Sequence to fold (138 residues):
Amino acid sequence: MSTLMLKWDDSFCVGDVFIDSEHQILFTLAQHLREQEGRLTAEQVKQYVQLILEYTQVHFRHEEDLLRQIEWEHIKEHRKTHRHIIDTMKELIRTNRDIRVLQEKMRAFVNAWVLEHIVQKDSLFKQSLIEKRGFFTL
Fold:
């Protein structure tokens, strides 16, 4: 089991209360999956992995709506990244019948994309959001 700890930090905020709260929830879901590794039944793992997938899909729709509202110039690339993340999650679910392998692979993937996508990729639209709205909200 990885010792990587996902801990929310306000420096990860992009300036939209709704999106930032969803990001915090994604951090919490990823951390919970890590903490529960080896403790969940096969059915619980399947349900939790499905919950993460569904929540991620909803979040990406919200984020893309926001990016359209502020007319962010890189929305197509960002949307493409979102699709890749969703497709990868679905592929992990589809191809890993061993529930422990699924949990481990999903945990590793979710940890990586939560850190990379939220901390690095989403920070790219932060300045545009501030410029369009004229303020930064936590």
Remarks:
- The domain at 16-28+41-133 is CATH 1.20.120.50 (Four Helix Bundle (Hemerythrin (Met), subunit A)).
